[in-house]
Amino acid sequence: MADFPTYAYIVEQFRTACAEHLAINSFGEGSIDSLDSLTQNVKYPLAFLRPLNSQGMVLNTNGVSGARALNFELFMLDVPQLTDTDVLQLQSQTEIYLYDIIAYFNLGDDQQLEYITLNSITPLYESFNDRVCGWNANITVNTYGTLDFCNFPKL
Fold this sequence. Notes:
alpha+beta, 6-stranded mixed sheet, 29% helix, 37% strand
């Protein structure tokens, strides 16, 4: 077993960050199909975490400790009224919400366990079950840890 934060712990940290944010009303995680089904009966703005292909843990030369990188898409979505001005305003707000979540990890109480690298952001105006606008951020959650054979589960 290793001593770095588990995947479930990382997802729960995102859930906590979104719950503590005054403007974000909902959080979800999973595949794009989950995002599409989640958009029904949800209160916006919505943060959605989608796992991507990741490198995982890269051990250093001693093969005992190293860095772990998990890649995600972090969607920040809201439902605009039918005006171009509203779309522009919501895209501005949801971009700031993305940066707020990154700051929660990189500068907040939990900054010792993981930090986020922002790789890219893409504006979007899409139709799931609702017409939504906002941003899709490609992020990497970076953690460090050590392998520990003492906790190896054996029969």
